[in-house]
Design brief:
The protein folds into 2 domains: 19-61, Arc Repressor Mutant, subunit A; 72-397, no CATH class. The protein is built from 13 helices and 8 strands. It has helices spanning 19-32, 40-44, 50-61, 72-85, 89-93, 101-118, 131-135, 138-170, 192-195, 203-208, 332-335, 346-357, 377-397; strands at 210-212, 224-230, 241-247, 250-257, 264-270, 292-299, 308-315, 320-327. A 5-stranded mixed beta sheet has the order 1-2-5-3-4. Strand 3 and strand 4 form a beta hairpin. It binds a DNA duplex through residues 1-4, 6-7, 14-17, 36-38, 50-52, 54-56, 59-60, 87-90, 101-103, 105-107, 109-111, 162, 166, 185, 187-188. Residues 170-195, 358-379 are annotated as: Disordered.
DNA sequence: AATTCCTACAACCGCTTCTCG
DNA sequence: CCGAGAAGCGGTTGTAGGAAT
């Protein structure tokens, strides 16, 4: 089929844009919208390829772009989302209004990646570098498990969201040129707030949905159930209903039904291990998790002021129970404008970790260890735990008007 | 003051995905 | 359903400007 050449046409300019070119492009788009990018350069009197024009517009000239230093909150968001989504910069950018994927990508590569590395965290896996210590540990396994589940679910739901978005789009074609999908690429993160109401179809939002106790008895030690119900998906969206079940004992199994209900229900079910006192029969799952006890409870009491997350991990190999109970993020109202929140808040903790360790201090601040991330055991675990909790926290505290959804 | 090195970021490249006839 | 073109996306490169020597 042969790909059409882009910038290799003779006479087309490459390299940095001049103010005059910027002006031409701006003026043209403001007046006509971009329409077809390929046709734009000729119409606008630019000696550039359409692709170059598009990039210049989306990454630099667009009026709704925030430039300059990244705030602390933005940094946190990038790191945490990167842990969940990987190098999917456009997806990450949807969580950072006014920032472009390119800018975020650059910032990650030049700043954050190095900072994490300095802290002894592998910027790719977001796990401590000397994973040897952690590899035999239940916590790391659970953290990785959470991550994998999240990524898997993220991919699936995003595909679903895309379908919905597309069908929405088709019925949305006649708009102001400056707001139309023609001018404003629908997948462009920056413009999503303009494009329409929030959509709650990604794992992040899913996790931001209503956490409910699947069964009271679960918290009694029978097993761990994490269930969440995403309400509002039916908000005039053509989203199919999805029901998912995850088990720690088996690969995630998803059943997606397109049907009557407009509610998405996702359930993670894991087997609680030896960490649960009053230990309950582990049944067949014991084989897979021999040596590991795991327990994750994530509860949000929507109407109450305090939500909690509690996780318990027991490493059978090291016979070292790790359990934590931490304050979940406070209600949205308290979390706006980057306010400090009561002690035990992960965002604050995470922030401290980042900032305090950016000067070459180790990931384990309490242990006062080397820069290679090998702190004293308990602090090491503690920090790693908080790291992942902060990610979950971000997910949970994602603003309801997040452009991603 | 000159040169080298480093950092930051804009822009490019090429592959993938989407759209439409 | 298929193919071509358009757009999106992520990795990589080029370059300007500042810091270090």
């Amino acid at each position: 089929m042969g790909r059409s050449p882009c910038c290799d046409k003779v006479g087309l300019k490459k390299g940095p844009w001049t103010p005059e070119e910027d002006q031409k492009l701006l003026a043209y788009i403001e007046e006509h919208g971009h329409g077809s990018w390929r046709a734009l350069p000729t119409k606008a009197g630019l000696q550039r390829c359409g692709k170059s024009c598009r990039l210049r517009w989306t990454n630099y000239l667009r009026p709704d772009i925030k430039r300059g230093k990244f705030s602390l909150q933005e940094e946190q968001t990038i790191i945490q989302l990167h842990a969940l989504l990987g190098n999917r910069w456009s997806a990450i950018a949807t969580h950072l209004p006014k920032r472009t994927d390119n800018e975020i990508k650059n910032y990650w590569n030049t700043h954050l990646k190095k900072r994490l590395a300095k802290m002894g965290i592998d910027p790719v896996t977001h796990k401590p570098k000397n994973d040897a210590l952690m590899s035999s540990d239940g916590q790391s396994k659970n953290a990785a498990n959470l991550s994998h589940m999240a990524q898997w679910e993220s991919a699936r739901l995003e595909a679903e969201a895309r379908l919905v978005r597309q069908s929405k789009l088709r019925s949305n074609s006649l708009q102001n040129p400056l707001r139309s999908p023609e001018l404003v690429p629908t997948s462009s993160p920056i413009n999503k707030p303009v494009a329409g109401p929030p959509r709650c179809l990604d794992i992040l939002k899913a996790w931001n949905g209503t956490w409910t106790k699947p069964n009271e008895s679960d918290s009694g030690g029978v097993g761990v159930g994490i269930s969440l119900t995403v309400a509002g998906i039916g908000n005039d969206l053509e989203s199919p209903t999805s029901t998912l079940s995850f088990s720690e004992n088996a690969p995630p199994i998803a059943t997606t039904g397109i049907g009557e209900s407009s509610t998405t229900f996702i359930e993670f079910v894991g087997n609680s291990g030896s960490c649960e006192e009053g230990g309950v029969p582990k049944e067949e799952s014991e084989e897979d998790w021999k040596g590991f006890g795991s327990s994750i409870h994530l509860h949000e009491y929507k109407d109450g002021m305090d939500s909690t997350i509690s996780m318990s991990f027991t490493s059978g190999l090291h016979d070292m129970p790790i359990s934590m109970e931490s304050a979940w993020a406070p209600p949205e109202s308290l979390r706006s404008s980057n306010e400090h929140v009561p002690t035990g808040n992960f965002v604050e903790r995470f922030t401290d970790l980042l900032l305090n360790n950016s000067g070459g201090r180790s990931f384990s601040e309490g242990g006062g260890e080397s820069d290679d991330g090998s702190g004293s055991g308990s602090d090491y675990y503690e920090d790693n735990k908080n790291y992942w909790n902060s990610i979950l926290n971000l997910v949970n505290s994602s603003p309801s008007d997040s452009p991603l959804f």
